[in-house]
Structures are given as C-alpha cells and as structure tokens.
Design goal:
The complex is a heterodimer of chains A (about 100) and B (about 200). Chain A has about 100 residues and is mainly α. Chain A has one domain. Chain A has three helices and no strands. The model of chain A has no long low-confidence stretch (mean pLDDT about 95). Chain B has about 200 residues and is mainly α. Chain B is elongated, with a radius of gyration of 20 Å. The termini of chain B are far apart. The chains are: A mainly alpha (about 100), B mainly alpha (about 200).
Chain lengths: ~100, ~200
C-alpha cells in the first residue's frame, strides 16, 4: 500500500494538472451543460482530495469530515442546478 | 500532598480532531461565510446570466490559474511540514513552512498584479454584478490568506525554536487545517469566477 506521504506527493501533481486542465477548458471550450458538469465534477474531486488527504479528515473526526465533504457535494451540485434552473432560482429570489 | 496530576482528555468518540477545537470553530465560521457568499454568487448568476457568462472572459485566466497553483502548493507544503514534525525533523519542517510562505507571498503578489491589470483594462466592481461578486469574493479570500500568513509566521517561530515534537504539535496542525480550509475556498472561487462561462 502507498504511504500517505507518497499519496500526497502524487495528489499535488494531479491537482496542479487538473488546475491547468480547468484553465484550458475555461479558455477554449464552448460553454454548455457538459462543460459545466465537468467543471463541477473537477471542483468536487479537488475539494474531496484536499479534505480527505491534505486535511487528513478521512481518518479523523466524523462530524468534521461530513461537514467538510458536504461542502463539496453541495456547491458543485448547485453549480449545475443553477445552470439548469437559473430562471426558476431568479423567480424564487425576486423580491 | 495534593495530587495535581490530570488525566489526559479522552479521544472524542467520533474520532480525532486535527489541531484543536478552537481552530475548527474558526474554520467552520470561515466555510459558512464563504457558503453565504457563494449563495449570493448563484442568486446573482441566476438574475444576470449574461454578465456571468461574459465576465470570466474579461478576467486574467493566467492570474487565476497561477493563484490556484499557489494555494494548492501551499496546502501540500504545509501537509509535508506536519509529516516532517511527526518524524521529529524540525529543520525539514521549517523548510516546508518557508515554502508555504513563498506560495502565500506569491499569491499576494499575483493578486496585486491582477488588480492593477484589471484597473488598466477598465475593470471595476461597479461594472456589473459579476464584477461586484468577483471583488467581494476575492477580497474576502485575500483577508483570510492574510490571517493565515500571520499564523504561519507564528508557527515558523515556534517550529524554529523547537516547540513542536512528534508527540505535541497541535499548534502546527491547527495552522495546517486553517491553511487547507483557505485553499478549499479558493478551489471553489477559481472555477466559479475564472473558468465557468
């Protein structure tokens, strides 16, 4: 099994690579639902890796782990939902 | 003779708390603050979809990308620093903390250049709601990085003076947890403001 130190070494490279990939998408891809989903999934994955392995919450307190992991379920989901149901959200939040 | 020995606090049933409880009160407050600001972002995006589609293209993607690399790298360096102290390697731990300081300083310099670039391209917070939200979110994040840098200097002094050991390094872990949380906030800011058109 890979040691935790080796794991975070590799994760660092992966997270930097995903960041460069994200920048490339932002610069070159045509906006659309598929791209929004890819961006949201990348956000969710990067957040989860930092929470689990850099913050070490994977093996730590359950409540803290669930709260921090929850952040990266909710925000990517709302990113996609806003793109799908923006009109509805605008109506709901009009005073 | 009075017995003054105090039994160590039992480990919480739900698992170990990295650092200490106090820092987690701060981290959860920080995450709540950013969650509220992201809520504002989504509502504003729903109301002004055009401004939010066009806004990211006017920002410097290079600055956003470089700052993401700075935040992720800082987070990684501090995790390495914690590993080093667990192996009782104070000097190695301190060297990783210097790299965190370098990444944090790099972030601040890039942000300053980015804001100057914005001004020279006529980008202000009053242009439309996208740029208002952009300045609110990025300024709030800068403030959190600023708090973190003060904490960083403190743990560097403590590490340099040999205050941490494999058995006792809660202070360093508390700082590391805060720094990771600040990285996490940026990992949402970057796609929402710079990537998602």
């Amino acid at each position: 099994m890979m040691s935790h130190e080796k794991l975070i070494d590799r994760l660092w490279l992966l997270l930097v690579a995903l960041t460069l990939g994200g920048a490339w998408i932002g610069e070159s891809a045509e906006p659309g639902l598929a791209v929004t989903i890819i961006i949201a999934l990348t956000m969710a994955f990067k957040g989860r890796m930092v929470v689990d392995h850099f913050m070490e919450l994977k093996t730590a307190n359950r409540t803290l782990r669930n709260l921090m992991r929850g952040f990266f379920y909710v925000l990517p989901a709302v990113t996609v939902l806003t793109s799908l149901f923006g009109d509805w959200l605008a109506r709901l939040t009009t005073l | 003779m009075l017995q003054t020995a105090v039994a160590p606090l039992p480990e919480p049933v739900a698992g170990r708390i990295p650092g200490n409880k106090g820092i987690w009160a701060g981290i959860l407050s920080e995450m709540t603050e950013f969650a509220l600001l992201f809520g504002v972002y989504f509502i504003a995006r729903a109301h002004y979809p055009e401004a939010f589609r066009e806004g990211p293209a006017r920002l410097s993607t290079l600055a956003g990308t470089l700052n993401t690399v700075m935040m992720i790298s800082g987070s990684y360096f501090v995790a390495k620093s914690v590993h080093a102290i667990r192996q009782n390697r104070q000097q190695v731990s301190l060297r990783w903390l210097f790299l965190v300081l370098l990444a944090a300083s790099g972030y601040m310099v890039i942000k300053a250049i980015e804001f100057q670039w914005n001004v020279s391209h006529g980008i202000t917070g009053g242009m439309n709601l996208f740029f208002t939200v952009y300045y609110y979110l990025t300024f709030t994040h800068i403030v959190h990085v600023g708090w973190g840098m003060m904490g960083l200097l403190w743990v560097m002094v403590r590490t340099g003076s040999g205050a941490y050991s494999p058995a006792d390094h809660d202070g360093l872990e508390a700082f590391a947890s805060y720094w990771h949380a600040t990285d996490l906030a940026w990992l949402v800011i970057f796609p929402l403001l710079y990537v998602l058109h």
